């Protein structure tokens, strides 16, 4: 049921319908559901401010909610919070082809924006795979397959509007390509995981749609040869739009799932963009030659829109292919990132840890920016092994001068590693920043830091 809020000066409803509580009680990596105290569906900035005023005056914690596609517990409740769902704030407010910008509400999804921009010949490049909301993508500093060329969310959010729990609305950043004015508070909010306030509007960079695109799928005898080939291509100076590594288990699973009959070998997925066919052909030739020198076994080149769609479908469907291969299991994705030269050590270390803990998993990721994922298919009785593996993998990434999270965020899953990565003094400064934005600790408590309200 949905009930009107009986609170002086406020008019909105809190839903406690079972379907709404279920939908807002988990994220992509959750194996169980924890219901929030209720769900508020905001349709405007005023709705957001009303919900935040209610939270402030009643001491009720708030979890900002977009599409629920985060992977490390950012939107998972403890049970006493209101889930503030902004998915109905889904208007594209304006866009300027001349300025190469678009202004949106936080509930606009990546695919919705792409469809809106298509006729203008521009696109928004950040592609985390899931059809996430742009507010949620900013909240986690999401990135994906195109980061090697276009950067992640922090590089593509020019300005944003942040509603604070005290009722103020801050405009952070300006719709310009560069500024040296004051502290970059906009960049602080991007990646803050809903712990500082609620993003109620964003202005984003958009980019020209490439005139000419080609994709390459290349198979290698082993992961080491594939990663060596990736480095050779990156060091050649050829500008890449995408560069992905997929291990043989993932290739086998997706081949069976999509009936592709692919060689069950580690593969690189590459994409190149150019303004001319001649320029693109020359760059593809350089890449193919380099892959050959690195010991490639087989190369497929995609040139038509249909071929490109099929090539990248085989990369983006890995998660679903593994679900089909291991029915009845739960799936958890990890998200470490290291300097490019340490990627082979991270991949081999991850595979060794998986074997040590007797876990089935595929290894893949954005090798072009050092970000490696493992998708672990596990049973209920493997919960302890999974926890030990995730902890060991994060420590391995830190030992390799990397980070415990390249793009998913800290959430709850990686809280224990925040101090190990940054140090006590830095994390205490982070806590001070959080208290400055949210003195009462009402915004997404229990996330980012170990379980304290500040």
Automatic annotation (TrEMBL):
Residues 32-209 form the FAD-binding PCMH-type domain. GO terms for molecular function: D-lactate dehydrogenase (cytochrome) activity; D-lactate dehydrogenase (NAD+) activity; FAD binding. One of its GO terms (biological process) is lactate catabolic process. Keywords: FAD, Flavoprotein, Oxidoreductase, Transit peptide. This is D-lactate dehydrogenase (cytochrome). Belongs to the FAD-binding oxidoreductase/transferase type 4 family. Its EC number is 1.1.2.4. It comes from Nocardioides dokdonensis FR1436. InterPro entries: FAD-bd_oxidored_4_C, FAD-bd_PCMH, FAD-bd_PCMH-like_sf, FAD-bd_PCMH_sub2, FAD-linked_Oxase-like_C, Oxid_FAD_bind_N, Vanillyl_alc_oxidase_C-sub2. It comes from the Bacteria. It is an enzyme of class 1 (oxidoreductase). Its cofactor is FAD.
């Amino acid at each position: 049921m949905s009930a009107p809020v009986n609170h002086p000066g406020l008019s909105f409803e809190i839903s406690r319908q079972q379907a709404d509580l279920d939908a807002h009680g988990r994220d992509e990596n959750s194996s169980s559901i924890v219901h929030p105290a209720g769900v508020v569906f905001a349709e405007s900035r005023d709705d957001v401010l009303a919900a935040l005023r209610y939270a402030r005056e009643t001491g009720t914690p708030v979890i900002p909610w977009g599409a629920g596609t985060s992977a490390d517990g950012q939107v998972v409740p403890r049970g006493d919070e209101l889930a503030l769902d902004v998915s109905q704030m889904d208007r594209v407010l304006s866009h300027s082809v001349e300025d190469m910008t678009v202004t949106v509400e936080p509930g606009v999804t990546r695919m919705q924006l792409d469809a809106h921009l298509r006729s203008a010949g521009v696109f928004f490049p950040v592609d985390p795979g899931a059809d996430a909301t742009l507010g949620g993508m900013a909240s986690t500093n999401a990135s994906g397959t195109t980061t090697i060329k276009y950067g992640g969310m922090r590089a593509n959010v020019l300005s944003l509007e942040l509603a604070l729990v005290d009722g103020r609305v801050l405009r952070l950043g300006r719709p310009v390509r560069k500024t040296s004015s004051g502290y970059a508070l906009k960049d602080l909010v991007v990646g803050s995981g809903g712990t500082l306030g609620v993003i109620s509007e964003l202005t984003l960079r958009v980019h020209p749609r490439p005139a000419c695109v080609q994709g390459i799928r290349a198979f290698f005898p082993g992961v080491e040869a594939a990663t060596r080939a990736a480095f050779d291509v990156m060091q050649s100076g050829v500008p890449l739009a995408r560069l992905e590594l997929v291990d043989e288990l993932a290739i086998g699973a997706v081949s069976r799932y999509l009936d592709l009959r692919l060689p069950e070998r580690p593969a690189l997925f590459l994409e190149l963009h150019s303004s001319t066919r001649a320029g693109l052909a020359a760059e593809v030739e350089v890449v193919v030659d380099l892959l050959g020198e690195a010991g490639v076994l087989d190369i497929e080149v995609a040139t038509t829109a249909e071929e490109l769609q099929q090539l990248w479908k085989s990369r983006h469907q890995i998660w679903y292919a593994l679900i089909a291969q291991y029915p009845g299991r739960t799936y958890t994705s990890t998200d470490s990132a290291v300097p490019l030269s340490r990627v082979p050590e991270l991949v081999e270390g991850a595979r060794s840890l998986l074997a040590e803990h007797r876990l089935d998993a595929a290894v893949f990721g954005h090798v072009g920016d050092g970000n490696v994922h493992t998708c672990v298919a596990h049973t209920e009785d493997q919960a302890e092994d999974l926890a030990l593996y995730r902890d060991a993998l994060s420590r391995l990434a830190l030992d390799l001068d990397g980070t415990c999270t390249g793009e998913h965020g800290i959430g709850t899953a990686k809280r224990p590693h925040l101090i190990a990565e940054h140090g006590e003094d830095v994390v205490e400064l982070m806590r001070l920043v959080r208290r400055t934005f949210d003195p009462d600790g009402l915004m997404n408590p229990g996330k980012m830091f170990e379980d304290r309200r500040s």
